[in-house]
């Protein structure tokens, strides 16, 4: 789309999590502590063009945008075809 020549791209993403409690006791709690993203690019394009590319990629990424600005999340479940009430 943007006709930008990128010779090499590597992306390293790290997600830090923690969990506490017990599954057997019903006290398990999982938490996401954060994400880190490191992008390494090789290109002869001007820096400004690469910055435009990165802006478009980040602003066009549904997952990144959902994490940056939390969205509504709805849940439902059934058991043997009948609605099942979910815990809070």
Strand content of the residues, in percent? Answer: 35-45%
The percentage helix is 10-25%
Number of strands: 4
- Specify the overall morphology: elongated
- Reading the helices and strands in chain order gives EEHHEE
Round the Cα radius of gyration to an integer and report it: 20 Å
**Biggest pleated-sheet summary:** 2 strands, antiparallel
Q: Mean pLDDT, nearest integer?
A: 96
Number of helices: 2
Low-confidence stretches: none
Structural class: alpha+beta
Oligomer: single chain
Keywords:
two-stranded antiparallel ribbon, elongated, alpha+beta, single chain, two-stranded antiparallel sheet
How is this structure best described in words?
With 88 residues, the protein is an alpha+beta fold. The protein is elongated, with a radius of gyration of 20 Å. 23% of the residues lie in helices and 35% in strands. It starts with 7 loop residues before the first strand and ends in a 5-residue tail after the last strand. It has two helices and four strands. The protein has a two-stranded antiparallel ribbon with strand order 1-2. Strands 3-4 form a two-stranded antiparallel sheet. Strand 1 and strand 2 (29-42) form a beta hairpin.
